[in-house]
Each structure stands twice: as C-alpha cells, then as structure tokens.
Design a protein that fits this description.
This protein has 347 residues and is of the alpha/beta class. It folds into 2 domains: 3-153, 3-Layer(aba) Sandwich (Rossmann fold); 170-346, Rossmann fold (3-Layer(aba) Sandwich), CATH 3.40.50. It is built from 13 helices and 12 strands. The longest helix has 17 residues, at 12-28. It is globular, with a radius of gyration of 21 Å.
Length: 347
C-alpha cells in the first residue's frame, strides 16, 4: 500500500490550493494512505477531509507563545515519531520553505520530493527534485497547477481542480442556519468579505461603498471577517440599513457554510476568497490589487477576477514602493466593472 505524506504547513489559501493534489492522488490510487503536516490555523480544512487519512498538526500558536521551551522540543519529537511510525513511502514538500524542509532530515522516508526553485535552500533537504515547468513566482502560472506537477510526476493526470472541503458538522450547520435566519429567501444573497492581511491587497473603500450602495435593497447583504475588520465593514456599509454583519461570529468551517448558502461572494485576495472558491457553490468575484491574479485567483466558470491595468502590476509586495500615488493598485479597479458583472449575475 502506497503511503504519501504532504508538507504544507500554513496559510489558508495555500492549504486550499494543495487540496486538488490530494484529491488527484486519491483518484488515481484509491487505496493509498495520505498524511498531511499542517499548522493549527489551517488545519480545519485538512483534519476530517475525506481524502486525508492522518493529519499531524503543528501547534505554532502555542509554541510561539511559549518561546524557547523544552516542552516544545518534546512535542515536536512526538509528532516526528508519530509520522515515522506510519512508514510513509513518499513525502512531498509542497511548501518549499525552510520551515517545511527542516522537517525532512527527521523523517525516515525514502523518497523526499520537491519542485525546483524553492526558497530558503529548501531543495537541499530533498533527494528528488522535479524540474518545475515555471518559476516559483511566475505571475502567469497558477499555483494549483504548480502543485499538480507533483501528481503528474507520480503518474497522475489532473486538469480541473477538485477541493472537496469537509462538510460542516451539525453544530456548525445549525449555527449558520440561525445566523442567517433573518435573510429574505425571495432575494439572492451576496456575501462581502472585504478585508485581507496586506495593506495593499485592500480595495479602495469608496469603491466598496459604490458596490454596496448598488446592492442595497436588491439582495441580502452579508458581511464576513474578523472582529478586527468591523471598523472597515461599518464604514463601507454605513448607508445600508438591513445588512447582516457576521464579522467575528464564525470560525472558518462556519464561514465555509455561510459561503455555501450564498449566491455571490465578493472579496479581495484573501483566505475568504479561496474558501468561497473551494466550496464550489457561489459565484466568486475577486478584486486583486498587488498580487498576481493569474497565479492565485479563483478560476473557472463560477469565478470572475478583476485586477489593475497599470505598469507596476503585479508587484507582489506587502508594501507599495511608489513614492507618488501610494497604493495606486488599490484604486485602479473601478467599481463600475464589478457592478456591471453583478448586473449580469442578478438579471
């Protein structure tokens, strides 16, 4: 029986982008066993996934809070021991960073595979290097396709990505039902998740307000995010009387269930956008500013992505380097383009 271990530790979007690899492997080798090493934040979409047989969670938050600690070392070694007991045949380092590659010397796994072009000397820890078809940060090559190169190397052909997110538990399902109970069932539901992690991945607030004002009264309007996103959400929804603000009220699995009940989700490049894509139900509209849409954006027949037509796009930088017109990309996608798409979808 073939046993494969996946290393993809962090970032919700990156974790979701790796799920098609797991599903492709299982489709080709239904009897294989797949394990996955993941950090706690992104573990919800791995633990309990129908095609992941074992999930090894790195408790990064706890370890970081403790700092240098003997207890951290003991817990790390315990995780390594539990992995080695499974006797995996192959480990795939899809993260291609030092923090994933540093696990490899501790793993008693014969084939340690990664793609060429990894960062932080991560390739030094693998013994099989797949020649990547494109550079790691090629802005015109989607990261899902890059991850599927691992599958192709192992004899698996995969074209359309499949995510198969775990279904919501009964507890999560009923909570979301309650949260959405005030919605008008005669109207379509649009979920707006306006916040993200980088300053220059945020869309201009005036543009958000124009879109929100257009939708006001035409659809159910639901806003999602964290508690920290509430000031932004309140500003862009200030003219709307009957919106539903769920920021800070859902965990990630509940957020996925909210998206399953939506007709349209609008978001910048964020974990929310990728979760909405992965539930495979709503139409997903994404607004990309500094990051590369062709590399990261949700794609397919139920997706539309808008991005700037400016010389410096995509810069892929956390902070804008322009001395004048700071964060120009955040203002370069016009609200009229999004409204035009919404008119098409709501007609």
């Amino acid at each position: 029986m073939l046993k494969i271990l996946i290393l993809r530790l962090s970032a919700i979007g990156d974790t979701i982008h790796t799920l098609p690899l797991v599903n492709a492997l299982k489709a080709k080798y239904p009897d294989c066993k797949i394990g996955w090493v993941v950090e706690d934040k992104a573990s919800l979409f791995v633990e309990g996934h129908q095609n992941v047989d074992k999930c090894y969670i790195i408790p990064k938050k706890i370890w970081k809070k403790r700092g240098l600690s003997l207890k951290n070392v003991k817990e790390f070694l315990k995780i390594i021991d539990s992995i080695n007991q499974e006797k995996y045949d192959i480990v795939l380092d899809t993260q291609q960073l030092f923090k994933s590659a540093i696990l490899l010397p501790f793993l008693n796994i014969k084939r340690k595979i990664t793609l060429s072009g990894g960062r932080e000397f991560s390739g030094l820890f693998s013994n099989e290097i797949i020649k990547a078809k494109h550079p790691l940060f090629d802005p015109d090559y989607h990261v899902v396709k890059r991850n599927l190169e691992f599958a192709q190397y192992l004899g698996v052909e995969a074209s359309e990505p499949e995510f198969k997110l775990p279904s919501a538990s009964q507890e999560h399902f009923h909570k979301v039902q309650m949260l959405l109970s005030s919605l008008n069932l005669a109207q379509k539901t649009v979920v707006i998740s306006p916040a993200t992690t980088w300053e220059n991945k945020h869309w201009d607030e005036n543009c958000w307000q124009k879109v929100v004002n257009y939708l006001n009264g035409k659809t159910n309007l639901v806003f999602t995010g964290t508690k920290q996103d509430l000031p932004l959400i309140k500003r862009i929804s200030s003219s709307v009387q009957n919106s539903l603000i769920l920021a800070g009220q859902t965990d990630l699995m509940e957020l996925a269930e909210v998206f399953r009940k939506a007709d349209i989700v609008i978001s910048p490049d964020s974990g929310s956008a990728h979760i909405a894509w992965a539930v495979e139900k709503p139409f997903v509209i994404t607004i990309f500013t500094a990051t590369a849409a062709k590399r990261n954006a949700p794609s397919g027949k139920n997706c539309a992505c808008f991005y700037p037509d400016i010389d410096c796009y995509p810069c892929m930088k956390r902070k804008c380097c322009l001395e004048n017109d700071k964060n120009l990309c955040c203002r370069s996608v016009q609200a009229d383009k999004i409204i035009e798409k919404l008119q098409e979808l709501l007609s």
